[in-house]
Amino acid sequence: MSLSDLLAMLPILILAFGATAILMAGAWYREPLPLLAGGIVTALLGALSAGLVTPPVPEIAGLFSAGGYARFYTILWSLLAAAGLMTGSRYIIEKRIGAGEYVSLVLYAAAGMALLSSATHLVGLFIALETFTLAFYILIASNRNCALAAEAGLKYLLLGAVATGFMAFGIALIYAASGSLVLPDAVMRLKAETGELQAWGLLGWGMILIAVGFKISLAPFHLWTPDVYQGAPAPVTGLLATGSKGAVVAALVGLLAMSGPVWNDLTDLVWLLAALTMLAGAFGALGQSNLKRLLAYSSVTHMGTLLVGVLCQTSEGFAATTFYVVVYVVTSLGAFAVIASLADGRGEPMTFDQWRGLGYRHPVRCGVLVLLLLSLAGLPATAGFMAKFAVFHAALQSGYIGLLMIGILASVISFAFYLRVTMLLFQPDEKASSWHQGSVFEHTVLAVCSSAVLVLGLFPGLLFGLIRQILP
Amino acid sequence: MEILLFYSVALVAVLSGFLVIRCQSPVNSALGLVNTFFCLAIFYVMLHAPFMAAIQIMVYAGAIMVLILFVIMLLNLGIEARKRYTHGIVWSALASLMVLFGTIYFLKRGRVTGAEGDLTAFQIESIGHTELIGRSMFTEFLLPFEIASILLLVAIVGAVVLAKKEV
Amino acid sequence: MLDSYLPILTLIIIAVGFSFGAAILSRLVGEKKPSTVKLAPYECGMPPVGSARERFSIKFYIIAMLFIVFDIEVVFMYPWAVMFKSLGLFGFIEMGVFILILLVGYAYVWKKGALEWE
Description:
The structure holds three protein chains of three kinds.
Chain A: H1 3-8, H2 10-28, H3 32-52, E1 59-60, E2 64-65, H4 68-94, H5 99-117, H6 122-140, H7 147-178, H8 183-190, H9 199-215, H10 224-231, H11 234-259, H12 267-286, H13 291-312, H14 315-342, H15 352-355, H16 358-361, H17 363-377, H18 383-398, H19 401-425, H20 440-458, H21 460-470
Antiparallel strand pairs in A: 1-2
Helix pairs in contact in A: 2-3, 2-5, 3-4, 3-5, 4-5, 4-11, 4-14, 4-20, 5-6, 5-11, 6-7, 6-11, 7-8, 7-9, 7-10, 10-13, 11-13, 11-14, 12-13, 12-19, 13-14, 13-18, 13-19, 14-17, 14-18, 14-20, 14-21, 17-19, 17-20, 18-20, 20-21
Chain B: H1 2-22, H2 26-46, H3 50-75, H4 79-84, H5 89-109, H6 121-127, H7 129-138, H8 142-163
Chain C: H1 6-29, H2 36-39, H3 58-82, H4 84-112
Helix pairs in contact in C: 3-4
């Protein structure tokens, strides 16, 4: 560790120390608004420093990369943390949840996600993963007056612990087989003799894949997703659905892009996982009558599609995956922010009965929700379409025709349930009740998300150009 | 001699692991778990990792176990609640045995590359396990060590947020 | 290698032998004249009321939880203490940062009143 290392991880330091300072401040001053504002400023400062300060070293302490890819994701997760604080502002004030705790946990989670996305070393990967997962365990169960939240927290904790066990075991096996924890190095040594992964290394990668499967809810490890998304408060669900999954995918892409085609021996398995995940998500969502559960299944489908992009293991596949992650984060965050902004004393609108006819009571926010849902569905001219198109194009070029067909099938099915929600929103219903008007913060997040979806849909080249430059 | 020790300890470990899931009273299960932790500590010793063995006993058999017992007593489920959930032990045992044999078969086919890490058993003998851990923790893995302190801080916040009456 | 653990093994054998020996010996040698009063659980001379297995308060849990966290913190100090001389000032600063961050946690817990028995 030297000064240049410290300078290279300035954004992380800002997030972590800002969080600690706010935690301390929160213990003395209970006023939530200044704490929230401080948190948002800290997150924005983190993003700003990641964007402006050029790291003097390419790698921090041999554990985390400080390259363009890492900085890109640091900016994304810092902005996500700011958005999470904005959407959560009303929630913590109304539910009387400690503002200092909420703000600091979100910032710690952002720091963990940023570290995870830039990990180049298995130890760095593990500890970063744990940092943000631990924060999420607490955030999910933070509303202690809600039994569903407690259940969600417990479920996420138990499955998260199982996933952690698999991750640690996988890392140990890879180390046992290769004698190295640095990623490209470990893979080189694993393949040294025959050019194929040896059994132990393969088993290690399999275990890591299982852990990743739990974290980003690939079928058949996705069963916790609907329950946790339903129970967790909407602002937290927004972070959980986007950041915790996106960071894991980002780490995976980073590692694979660095260490070459590791997965050649695992291709069949990953193929199967991707196909299963896309179909399980699409069919699972069909029978839902609760918007949060539906979005959970929708996120399962999206993770399957993302895995297709990762599976290609070409630079085009990685670029498409990265683009998809950004689009998915923006869209999904927006959808949960709509739910959060409508929440009032009765809780959040969840069941379809509560949503019926809401389009006439809250036309603007329901319009935004429709836009985001259509982007999730992949309607042309939205960002979701470009993302799906890029991933499927990469799959086509790598020759995964079967997977492409399954992906298109899953997309067609998902159109059905997204359209169902859209129609539901604008069904005339006299009984539809008014919900909360939403705060300025929430409206800001919604405005940013919806305009990002439109801009990325119409001018995807802006982001693609940047992504091609930064991919490791 | 050593292989005999290994297998006898392994037998005890597996048996106590079985007791953990099979005991009617959760307190007995917890005691079975303590036994398993002790066996693992012996394994660590046999693997030339005495520091890990000490930590295993201090943290797991000591502290974590206290916490588990607390949770058992906090919940204090009645006999009825315990009987309601019977584990499908036969099926899960069969399934896990199949996975185990599948894994062993798979691993037997492959070979270990024989690549050695930087830390060998010889080094541990000559320098000392705790010293080596200290050295790599404060040089190579300094950053994870400091992140671990943040992790512990988050855990403290979690304990207060989730278990304190009025935050 | 394993020879050096012989004293620990001896200690364990003696400890286990003593506890089992005492229990078996008292059973063999001791005189037994049971009566209802003698067999009842001893509660400081009071007649026992209700079951001994009552629910604990969650207050215990938070104390235990905090104990574990700080216990793990201490675990990190052993390797540091062993290498203290060769790590020098840099190691001292590193440990200082570590402890400072956890001191923040301690101050937080204190200020929040989690250490108070309410």
